[in-house]
Write a structure and sequence with these properties.
220 residues; two-stranded antiparallel sheet; Arc Repressor Mutant, subunit A; single chain; mainly alpha; 2 domains; 12 helices
């Protein structure tokens, strides 16, 4: 457990530098953490987005996706990046005192609504992939990439279901937090799936299916 001090107050952080208890968040914490995230001063535009994330979290217990935050704030992803240069999860979410965790994501209408907004928000984004279609930079991944990859692959109906998203976000979360890629057995156990169900969800397999859609690739 880590700690963070600002204006004579001490805040407990998790291993990723996120506020351990979101209820301890206040404006002083946001100002101090912003400096840790390469933001010297929080402008009114910053506060608009921060307050939106806090309000959604307070009401639902869930950190909204970047697409929901962009839509609510009238920002494009590129503009969001300028406001929070260290990223959405490692920038805005940290400053807002919430953590984007897979276990808290409602894999239903929340995700479907976000996917419905993808084209409007990210239609002009270009992803660098290798010759096999794997994302070169895992940090450039977003739901838009996953949706389009699914359309190109053997996903039944070309649509990602709640079970697909559970696996995808689990893989992303482990990679982001623990800097590793879990194996298929760990993934199935954590996502409460058997191997037969997993195979039906990702006919192309674990590496060429699930990992590719999640923007990851296994390197031996």
């Amino acid at each position: 457990m880590n700690s963070f001090q600002y204006k004579n107050a001490t805040y407990e952080l998790d291993a990723q530098g996120c506020l351990l208890d979101p209820a301890c968040w206040n404006r002083d914490f946001a100002e101090g953490m912003a400096r840790e995230c390469d933001i010297p001063v929080l402008s009114s535009e910053h506060w608009d987005v921060i307050n939106y994330v806090r309000n959604v979290y307070d009401k639902t217990g869930v950190c909204p996706t970047i697409f929901a935050a962009c839509k609510a704030s009238g920002l494009r992803p590129q503009e969001m990046q300028k406001l929070f240069p260290t990223g959405y999860h490692r920038g805005l979410c940290r400053v807002a005192g919430v953590h984007y965790r897979v276990s808290a994501i409602p894999y239903g209408e929340h995700i479907r609504q976000s996917v419905a907004d993808l084209r409007a928000l990210s239609g002009d984004k270009v992803y660098a992939t290798d010759v096999r279609g794997f994302l070169v930079d895992p940090d450039s991944w977003d739901e838009n990439f996953a949706v389009h990859r699914a359309m190109e692959m053997h996903i039944p109906g070309g649509k990602l279901t709640d079970d697909h998203w559970r696996v995808i976000y689990y893989l992303r979360d482990v990679h982001q937090v623990q800097h590793r890629i879990p194996n298929i057995y760990e993934t199935c156990e954590s996502c409460d799936l058997d191997l037969d169900t997993f195979e039906r969800l990702f006919p192309d397999g674990y590496h060429r299916g699930a990992l590719k859609i999640a923007g990851l690739r296994f390197v031996q």
